[in-house]
Amino acid sequence: MIRFENVSKEYPDGTLAVKTVDFQIQEGEFFVLIGPSGSGKTTTLKMINRLIPLTGGTIKIQNKKISEYNIHELRWNIGYVLQDISLFPHMTIEENIAIVPEMKKWESGKISQRIDELLDMVGLDPSTYRKRKPNELSGGQQQRIGVARALAANPPIILMDEPFSALDPISREKLQDDLVELQKQIKKTIVFVTHDMNEALKLGERICVMKDGEVVQIGSPEALLHSP
Ligand code: ADP
Ligand code: ADP
After folding, report:
1. Confidence category of residue 224, pLDDT binned at 50, 70, 90
2. Which pLDDT tens digit goes with each residue over 59-80?
3. Cβ–ligand 1 contact at 38 (below 6 Å)
4. Atom 7, ligand 1: residue with shortest CA distance
5. Residues with a CB atom less than 6 Å from ligand 2
6. Exposure of 7 in the CB half-sphere (CA atoms within 13 A)
7. Cβ distance 164 to 175 under 8 Å?
8. Is the ipTM of this complex over 0.85?
């Protein structure tokens, strides 16, 4: 589904953030990128939807180079959930979720139905939350909306950059559990960045360990736990 071939990234200031990374992510796989701060996880993630241009190598999605996709086509087919609260504060929950479906010119009845469906999927009652503004929700609820928004137009790929790390431990655990359950239903290709090994082991089907811009290990949670 997603293939990195000798991918590297040097920032204009000369920082070599990613050095020759090679891996493949299977369709429907929950793939976790883990490593200490500065190891190149976010850079790796953001190259997938071309938020950051690569400086070497190739990334392919379904055997097509990302550079060959129309940028809108690429972004609309890749949901993105950020660490920080990224909802638009002046817009209601339903307006936030509707952004991509509206850009794709879905008709309003279909969008409305989809919003109800998405709120149910992330465990928030539609009639209570649709008309609220983001600041009327807890941090955990806002991140649930972030997940709903990323899923809105049913993209096959979801990128998540430390989506739960700003939450209190109890909310974080609940969202992790719920994401595991949700993934069983939706079976998306998920690329999830974290620096928390417990989170990686709990969520990941495969875990890719990065250090200083390189992949140092890649494998199942079991394989990682039993490696020296
Ligand atoms: P991580 O997500 O693992 O914390 P990042 O991908 O954010 O790592 O960063 C990898 C390296 O690239 C770090 O040394 C970071 O300081 C550097 N870096 C990130 N963004 C930029 C940028 N825009 N310009 C220069 N260096 C950057
Ligand atoms: P993250 O928490 O995802 O690792 P950071 O806090 O490292 O992100 O970076 C936040 C922003 O600053 C990003 O857009 C990143 O590209 C940029 N950035 C990070 N490190 C540097 C750097 N050394 N020089 C310039 N920009 C940087």
Report:
1. confident
2. 999 999 999 999 999 998 999 9
3. yes
4. 42
5. 15, 42, 161
6. 30
7. yes
8. no
